[in-house]
Amino acid sequence: MSKSLQNLERLCQKMQARYGAQDPMVLQLLDELATKKQLTPIAAQWAGNHERRTTKNPRVHLRAH
């Protein structure tokens, strides 16, 4: 799990403790957190694929005409 996702979970717990589990803002945060958890593996997979395709020098693929 990413550090940003862990930070969001901690924030959500603090908001629940402060405002209650039924607060509209807390419910929205919970929904967004659930969505982010579902998207995180996809984003990580895309980033991994992207890193493999890139080179250290992007100009290598450019040819002078």
Shape: flat
Strand share of the residues?
under 5%
Q: Which class best fits the helix and strand makeup? A: mainly alpha
Question: How many beta strands in the DSSP annotation?
Answer: 0
Largest sheet: none
Could you tell me the mean pLDDT? 76
Low-confidence stretches: none
Helical percentage? over 70%
Q: Kindly report how far apart the N and C termini lie.
A: 46 Å
- Counting DSSP H or I runs of 4 or more residues, the number of helices is 2
* Radius of gyration, in angstroms, nearest whole number: 19 Å
Write the H/E string, N to C. Answer: HH
Written description of the protein model:
The structure is a single chain. The protein has 65 residues and is an all-alpha fold. The chain contains two helices and no strands. Helix 1 runs antiparallel to helix 2. The model has no long low-confidence stretch (mean pLDDT 76).
Task: Considering the chains and any ligands shown, give keywords for the structure.
flat, mainly alpha, 65 residues
Annotate the secondary structure layout.
Blueprint: H1 3-19, H2 24-53
In short:
Helix content is 72%, strand content 0%. The chain has 65 residues and is mostly helical. The protein is flat, with a radius of gyration of 19 Å.
